[in-house]
Design brief:
mainly beta, 18-stranded parallel β-sheet, 32 strands, 42% strand, galacturan 1,4-alpha-galacturonidase activity, galacturonan 1,4-alpha-galacturonidase, polygalacturonase activity, Glyco_hydro_28
C-alpha cells in the first residue's frame, strides 16, 4: 500500500518537457496554444534553440500550475503592421500579445545565449511609419502567484513590455529591453555586440554609444514602457531597459514593490502612477527603488497623479540614483494630464485628494540636462512636460496641492548642470508642512537640515 502511495505521489509530481512545434512560414501560435493547454501542470514548454518561431497571432494562456515557459529559440511578431493591427483591433484580442490568465509557480525564462532567446517586435517599421494605432502590448504576467521572469530579451517592441497586474510574489531579473530605433540600422545586433552585452548589461550603452538618443536626430527611443508593476510583493532587479516611456511604472493597488540594481535609458523615469485618473481612488504603498543609473531619460524619480484624483500614495523611497543627461531628476506632480485629449486643464478651482505621505529621495547624484532639447513624445506646443516659469536647471520640482503632502524629503542630493550654471528647485512652501531637505521656493537649490 505504501509503495502504491509513493508511486501515485511520484506520478503527480512528474515533470516533463514539451517542445513547441514549428512549421516554416506558418503561424506557430495554434500549436503553442494546443501544447500548453494539454500540459498546463508540471511541465516545461520549450521553444527550441536554433528555431525562430512565428507568433503571428496573440496567445492567451490557460491557468498554469508549476509551469516553465522557456524561450531558447527566437520569437517573432508579424513584420506587417496591418496584420498586427487587425489582431489587436479584433474583439477577441486578450489585451496583450502574450497573456497569462493566472496560476501559481510559473516561470517565464529566456536564454543567456547572446544570439538566441530574442523576441522581435519589429518596432522599427512602426517607428518609421509614425504609427501608433492598435499597437500590440507585450507580456501580461497577470494574476500569477509565485512567478519568475528572467533572462528575457526583447528587441524593438512596439508597446509596453511586461505587466504584472494582480500578481503576488514575483521576481523579475536579468531582463533586457532594447526599444531603440536607428533608421540606418534595422538588423538585429551583431553577434559580437550581443556577446559583449551578455557580459555587462549595465554598462552597455556607456561603452558603445557616444550619441545622446532621443535628444538628437540620429537615435530615437521607441515610445514603449518597460515594466508595469501591479500586484503585491514584487522584486525587480538587474534589468536593463532602453526605451521611450517609463522604465518602471508602479500602478494603482501595488504594494511592497522593490526595484534595484538596474539601468534605464531614454525613457520617462522610475514612476509612481499615473494615479487618480477620472477621480479614481488610488492606493500605492511600500515602494523601494534603489541603485539605478538613469541616462538620457526625461525624468529620474517621478510621481504623477491626475488633477481631481483621490486616494493615497505612502512610504515611497527612491535611493542611490545616478542620473546623466536628465532634465528632471526629481519630479512630483499632482497635475498630470494627457496631451492627447486636449490642453492642460485649468486647476484654479480644482480639488485634489490624492495624498502623498512619507516620500524620500535620498543620495541622488548626477548631471542635469539644461541645454535645449525636444523629447520625442512631444506633440503639443508647449510640450506636455513643459513647466511654466522653470529655468530648466531644477534638480527637484514639487508641484503639490495644499494639505495633501506630508513628510516628503530630498536628502543627500548632489547635482550639477551641463552648462555649469547654478542648480535650482521649484517648490511652493504653502503646500508642505515639513522641512523638505532644501529651501522650498522657486530659486537656487539651498540644502537645509533635513537634506544633510
Amino acid at each position: 500500500m505504501l509503495l502504491g502511495l509513493l508511486l501515485q505521489a511520484s506520478a503527480a509530481l512528474a515533470w516533463d518537457t514539451f517542445v513547441v512545434p514549428h512549421t516554416p512560414n506558418e503561424n506557430d501560435t495554434p500549436g503553442l496554444l494546443a501544447l500548453v493547454t494539454n500540459h498546463s501542470t508540471n511541465a516545461t514548454i520549450m521553444f527550441s534553440k536554433g528555431v525562430t518561431y512565428n507568433i503571428f497571432t496573440a496567445i492567451k494562456f490557460p491557468v498554469l500550475s508549476n509551469v516553465e515557459i522557456r524561450i531558447e529559440g527566437n520569437l517573432t511578431y508579424p513584420s506587417d503592421i496591418s496584420e498586427v493591427q487587425a489582431v489587436v483591433g479584433a474583439s477577441s484580442f486578450p489585451g496583450s500579445w502574450f497573456t497569462f490568465t493566472g496560476g501559481k509557480n510559473v516561470t517565464l525564462r529566456g536564454s543567456t545565449d547572446p544570439k538566441w532567446g530574442w523576441v522581435d517586435g519589429h518596432g522599427q517599421a512602426w517607428w518609421d511609419a509614425v504609427q501608433q494605432v492598435n499597437r500590440p502590448h507585450g507580456w501580461a504576467f497577470s494574476k500569477i502567484t509565485n512567478g519568475v521572469i528572467r533572462d528575457m530579451k526583447l528587441w524593438k517592441p512596439v508597446a509596453w513590455n511586461f505587466a504584472t497586474s494582480g500578481a503576488v510574489n514575483v521576481h523579475a531579473y536579468n531582463n533586457l529591453i532594447l526599444a531603440v530605433s536607428d533608421t540606418s540600422v534595422t538588423s538585429r545586433p551583431s553577434l559580437s555586440f550581443l556577446a559583449m552585452l551578455n557580459h555587462t548589461r549595465i554598462s552597455l550603452f556607456h561603452l558603445t554609444l557616444t550619441a545622446r538618443p532621443r535628444f538628437i536626430l540620429h537615435w530615437h527611443y521607441l515610445p514603449v514602457a518597460g515594466f508595469s508593476a501591479g500586484g503585491t510583493n514584487l522584486l525587480f532587479e538587474n534589468n536593463h531597459v532602453v526605451n521611450g516611456d517609463d522604465c518602471l511604472t508602479v500602478g494603482n493597488g501595488a504594494r511592497n514593490i522593490t526595484w534595484r540594481n538596474s539601468y534605464c535609458e531614454g525613457g520617462h523615469g522610475l514612476s509612481i502612477g499615473s494615479l487618480g485618473s477620472g477621480g479614481q481612488v488610488a492606493d500605492v504603498q511600500n515602494v523601494f527603488i534603489e541603485k539605478t543609473v538613469m541616462k538620457s531619460t526625461l525624468y529620474g524619480a517621478r510621481f504623477k497623479s491626475w488633477t481631481g484624483g483621490n486616494g493615497l500614495a505612502r512610504n515611497i523611497t527612491w535611493k542611490d540614483i545616478t542620473f546623466i543627461d536628465v532634465p528632471f531628476p526629481i519630479y512630483v506632480t499632482q497635475n498630470y494630464w494627457d496631451q492627447g485629449v486636449g490642453p492642460r486643464p485649468n486647476v484654479t478651482d480644482a480639488l485634489n485628494n490624492t495624498h502623498v505621505q512619507d516620500f524620500l529621495f535620498q543620495n541622488f547624484a548626477g548631471v542635469i540636462r539644461d541645454k535645449p532639447y525636444v523629447e520625442g513624445s512631444c506633440v503639443s506646443d508647449p510640450c506636455w512636460y513643459a513647466v511654466a516659469n522653470a529655468t530648466g536647471r531644477e534638480v527637484a520640482i514639487f508641484d503639490l496641492y495644499p494639505g495633501t503632502a506630508s513628510n516628503i524629503v530630498a536628502k543627500d542630493i548632489f547635482a550639477t548642470t551641463e552648462t555649469l550654471r547654478p542648480v535650482d528647485v521649484m517648490c511652493n512652501a504653502t503646500t508642505v508642512t515639513n522641512d523638505v531637505g532644501f529651501k522650498c521656493w522657486d530659486g537656487p537649490f539651498v540644502r537645509t537640515k533635513a537634506g544633510l
